[in-house]
Amino acid sequence: MFKRFFLVVFFILSITSLRASFILLPMDETSQQNHLKAYGITYWCLTNQYKASWLLNYRGGSFLLPDAANIRKECHIRGVSFELLSDDQANTILEEIASPSQNMEAVVLEKAPKIAVYTPKGKQPWDDAVTLVLTYAEIPFTEIYDTEVLTDQLVMYDWLHLHHEDFTGQYGKFYAAYKNTPWYLEQKQEAESLAKQLGYGKVSVEKGAVAKKIRDFVVGGGFMFAMCSATDSFDIALAADGVDICEAMFDGDASEPNYQSKLQYANSFAFKDFTLERRPEQYEFSNIDMTGQRHIPMDKDYFTLMEFSAKWDPIPSMLCQNHTQLVKGFMGQTTSFNPDVVKSNVLVMGACELNGEARYIHGEKGKGMFTFFGGHDPEDFQHKVGDPPTVLDLHPNSPGYRLILNNVLFPAARKKHLKT
């Protein structure tokens, strides 16, 4: 009788120990069928008050979630691969990660960041890779523009995205090719009307004021992520504060004499000692961008992600989590960054080994942080005006888009100070 009772108790305890307590979203190359939507599942868990951990360098930067029926359901609905773990299995993984011999770390994700996307009204979703991937991953965001920024509404958000905006007031330097097209004339008129409505005589002055408000958001502790021409035009606008660098076709009067010598590089976030492109017919802002110099064929256009110590440098480690270190390159108005003009306190996290160009950089400003990512769309090698949208159902495991989502989720982490 006693023996039978012992066997029953042993069986019950065995079943209990095998019951799943955790869900692992594997992020390695072979196990995850939809890397991009896995970020959305993790974000959804945070918004629903579930705990989550980001397992840096463990199987491509996997996510550890508590086991719950509705989390499993969401994974099934969204097509995200997951594995069920017992307490013992989870503890074994965490012990492996904690070992000093392993370049891994478990980072607690605390709160879903409130996300703002800086974009003009009426822009098509595929004009902005971040808007596209946020929508695909089912991560909520709010669209804001100049009115919201200038009325100090940025304080409502943790994370701000900028894409191919022009903060210099030169309408994207599209003048030579598109000055007579209806869409260019309409956008120019809308920008001038908005600037006037907001109390500014010139678009360049109004955009400069927007750039300074965004600067204050970062300095105060916000996180900013920028792609394509929003990277260099933002820094140029800050360096040219109070200096007229626009020619007459842009703002109605000539540029200021010797404006190059009046730039204040201390005001910019990432770049120093750059030279502006004076010619209005040139589709380029400055020598920050290397698009015109690179001459790299499409089949050889890749950049390498740097490897960081997950335990000592968790911030760049988070931003570089991927299932591959070699990422397919892609172009934009601002494709990549000239390493000669990147400030010494800015961390290069991804670079092309063929020509040394920086593709993916990160830095701190005041209490906040910023990341600049060169190029327009990670799955559209040479995006052109009027091109059809990228269909992310065809690219659910895109390494380039993963880098964007690393930045989206990063503000949720309990951060440690950068050691590098």
Give your account of this protein's structure.
The chain has 420 residues and is an alpha/beta fold. The chain folds into two domains: 20-109, 2-Layer Sandwich (Alpha-Beta Plaits), CATH 3.30.70; 115-412, Rossmann fold (3-Layer(aba) Sandwich). Helix content is 33%, strand content 15%. The chain has 14 helices and 14 strands. The strands form two sheets. It has a nine-stranded mixed sheet with strand order 7-6-8-9-14-13-12-10-11, sandwiched between helices. A five-stranded antiparallel sheet has the order 4-1-3-2-5, with helices on both faces. The longest helix is centred in the N-terminal third of the chain and has 17 residues, at 2-18. The radius of gyration is 24 Å and the shape is elongated. It starts with a helix and ends in an 11-residue tail after the last helix. Residues 1-18 have low confidence and may be disordered. It comes from Flavobacterium agrisoli. This is Asparagine synthetase B.
